[in-house]
Backbone:
């Protein structure tokens, strides 16, 4: 902060009250401010809306010199800087939205030591010209702090990956002794470790806030006729309310938006392939008008702050638990009841697994992708509390929540351990080269042409599953694939083979439970409000 020789250094509380106008710190804010203002490093994991900004803005005003805030989002930079300037703080930003003259003016302010905070895009920070300026500030002891916002952008796996973030590891080398704080709302264990490693913050103090969003009710249903299910969900529970519907592809976004509109829902499409003006117009309507449903790809959402989104629906599986949490987290920011609804089918899982297998990435990348997908399958298939499962994924222990589908209506389940073992052993006995149809014939003891031709009426698993009907076997095979116990060879007509994950079940060390899907998916209809 700009020096003031007359007054003694203000306290964090004083700044909180007199600059920002708040009476108390929230959650871990005070401890974080203390750590960073005292010159220590911090890695902060806090959900969206938790109050991350103050964690570096207050230290910026307490420490001598300028704080450099690295942020990837131009719109967010502008909002933050306007709010700070309004509060009387000397703040500015440098990014591609400024003209050359404007940028030079900001640089002069920085050089003269007149800025408390400077927001900068990572690619700008890394230019030789900017680094020279930072060297000068360092040498004259006017470099207060580095704050790295949206720190998950350094994670190579996530869809927000920014290669320039990786180069931020030069900061501790070039500016040793200058404290750093990295902040993110995205934080499964894997991402945390990646952030710490890639930003050289292994020794930073970690501050992990609760990720629970108690006002969001989670509901995950089996896909039957997804659009109709969605329409029923909107009509019954969210008539004329604002919501977001996520789809995987642009085409599906457009088709779904049009279909909903035909059925009386005020729905608009949003994806990166739409003309810029249309996208902007749709976004503005969503933000300003009441009761608009935005049908979108994941291109929509980051940095969008609409407090009264009453539901987020997924018509396709998100890519990970992390993605699910981020996307559903856009509902209910105002703290009022909101819903996260998703329709999923085992075919979605198979499709995503295939996309990972066929992607360009290396083995490590694919392995991570599979692990993340498996974790998501665990969540959608869970027969226990969804919230507990979700929080557990973020390393947070909790009890059943009473505000998710499984808590409100415990699902009926079937212990399919025995049947699953039979299915796996049938795959093995027939040489791991057949698809589900043929395997089911063998299990049910059908003497089909193919069974007789291959002499599968002589294998030990022939007919051992006659007591289970064809449809149930199909479900079981789909689930074995979805949960990664069987792999599918798409080149060979869907031939199924055993995966390593099948071993515990074959050895009798694991159980296999299936959710019983009622003939007609019953709808949970119990609103507390
Ligand atoms: P995040 O970056 O974690 O999403 P923000 O820093 O934007 O969150 O803060 C979210 C909202 O909470 C803002 O409106 C902010 O002014 C408010 N806020 C943050 N800290 C406090 C506090 N200690 N007391 C009251 N309001 C706060
Ligand atoms: Zn629950």
Residues:
């Amino acid at each position: 902060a700009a020096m003031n020789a007359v007054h003694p250094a203000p306290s964090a509380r004083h700044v909180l009250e007199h600059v920002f106008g708040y009476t108390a710190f929230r959650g871990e804010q005070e401890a974080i401010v203390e750590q960073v203002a005292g010159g220590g490093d911090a890695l902060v994991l806090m959900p969206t809306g938790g109050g991350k900004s103050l964690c570096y803005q207050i230290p910026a005003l307490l420490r001598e010199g300028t704080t450099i805030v690295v942020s990837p989002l131009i719109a967010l930079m502008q909002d933050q800087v306007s709010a700070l300037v309004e509060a009387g703080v000397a703040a500015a930003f440098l990014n591609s939205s400024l003209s050359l003259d404007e940028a030079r003016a900001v640089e002069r302010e920085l050089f003269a030591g007149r800025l408390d905070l400077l927001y900068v895009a990572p690619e700008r920070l890394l230019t030789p010209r900017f680094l020279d300026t930072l060297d000068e500030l360092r040498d004259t002891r006017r470099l207060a702090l580095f704050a790295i916002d949206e720190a998950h952008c350094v994670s190579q796996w996530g869809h927000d990956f920014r290669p320039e973030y990786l180069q931020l590891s030069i900061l501790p080398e070039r500016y040793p002794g200058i404290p750093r704080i990295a902040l993110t709302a995205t934080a499964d264990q894997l991402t945390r470790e990646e952030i710490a490693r890639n930003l050289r913050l292994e020794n930073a103090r970690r501050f992990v806030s609760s990720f629970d969003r108690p006002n969001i009710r989670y509901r995950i249903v089996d896909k039957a006729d997804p659009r109709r299910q969605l329409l029923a969900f909107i009509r019954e529970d969210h008539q004329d309310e604002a919501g977001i519907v996520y789809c995987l592809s642009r085409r599906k976004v457009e088709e779904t938006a049009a279909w909903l509109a035909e059925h009386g829902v005020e729905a608009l499409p949003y994806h990166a392939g739409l003309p810029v003006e249309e996208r902007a117009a749709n976004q503005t309507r969503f933000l300003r008008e009441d009761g608009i449903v935005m049908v979108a790809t994941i291109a929509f959402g980051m940095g969008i702050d609409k407090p009264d989104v009453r539901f987020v629906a997924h018509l396709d599986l998100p890519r990970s638990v992390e993605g699910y949490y981020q996307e559903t987290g856009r509902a209910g920011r105002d703290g009022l009841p909101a819903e996260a609804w998703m329709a999923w089918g085992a075919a979605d899982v198979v499709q995503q697994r295939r996309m990972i297998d066929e992607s360009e990435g290396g083995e490590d990348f694919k392995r991570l992708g599979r692990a993340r997908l498996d974790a998501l399958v665990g969540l959608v298939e869970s027969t226990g509390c969804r919230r507990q499962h979700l929080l557990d994924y973020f390393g947070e222990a909790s009890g059943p929540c009473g505000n998710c589908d499984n808590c409100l209506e415990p699902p009926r389940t079937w212990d399919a351990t025995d049947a699953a073992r039979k299915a796996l052993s049938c795959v093995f006995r027939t040489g791991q080269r057949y698809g589900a149809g043929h395997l089911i014939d063998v299990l049910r003891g059908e003497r089909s042409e193919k069974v007789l031709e291959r002499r599968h009426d002589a294998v030990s698993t022939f007919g051992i599953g006659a007591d289970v009907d064809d449809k149930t076997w199909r479900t079981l095979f789909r689930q074995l694939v979805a949960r990664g116990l069987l792999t599918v060879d798409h080149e060979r007509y869907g031939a199924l083979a055993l995966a390593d994950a099948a071993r515990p079940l074959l050895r009798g060390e694991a159980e296999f439970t299936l959710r019983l899907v009622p003939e007609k998916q019953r709808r949970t209809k119990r609103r507390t409000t």
Residues 149 and 278 are 29 Å apart (CA to CA).
